[in-house]
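[Archive record]
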Amino acid sequence: MKNKKSFLYVMLTIAFPIALQNLLTTTASMVDTIMIGRLGESCVAAVGICSQISSLFFSCYWGFASASILFFSQYWGADDEKGINRTFGITFICMAIVGFAFASLCIIKPEFLLGVYTDKEVFIQIGKPYMRIVGWAYPLQVFAVLISFLLRSTERVKAPLICSIVGLVVNFCLNFVLIYGKFGAPKMGAAGAAVGTLASAIINLLLLFIYLMRSECKVRIRLSQMFLFHGGFIRVYLANAFPILCNELFYGVGQMLINIVIGHQNESAIAAMAAFRVCEGFVYAFLAAYQMQPAL
């Protein structure tokens, strides 16, 4: 009984901060949709469609991020600094490719991505400036997720939570100022929400990186070791990452098909789906914490 209680205590100690961070991370993308609500159904629907593109982006890189936990936890238990650095390096490359690919599409051809999800020109026109700004945040977000997962796997679960709280506060404050044009700032509408998201991503990543470099830990990230992986390590990494990646991609594609169908309905249906995704995200944030925590 004592061992069981100890196990539950350790599990909750790890899982609860992760659950809160997941909630805040999910909330950050929802704050835009919620605060845009006062601007009317068209803006809500347009930003909701943009959030669905972000969800697809999430599914494309999440498999690599989840696979990294398997290796981080294993190497952490073995005090293998080189293994952690190699895992960080190969995961960074894979996630960066996804991040820059989506960022390029969003910045250069946002109307293409939006046109896949909806045939409503008004939503595409509202969403284009939003996607062009948010696209710059995508590479920053994948790097922040990777650092967060490394910190979680090395028994530093509180720092990512604190950084997420700061990022969310920045996002909320800038949204309030720029969406509605408060304190003399221009009224930017949906584009203002995108600026808040980008600023939040910059602050979150900066704080995480500073903590990663300055925190005391028996295993440290070293640039000299990050890209010294060989063919055998790459094969093992991809063999473990592939099933997780496929699972996330199939889920993402399934959600995308649903969203495409909804995106070709009327304005009210699209806005209602955007509101539903907010509620769905809150539930998923807590459930995901228990499948993503490192080995105890």
About this structure: Confidence is low (pLDDT under 50) at residues 289-296. The chain has eleven helices and no strands. The chain has one domain: 15-292.
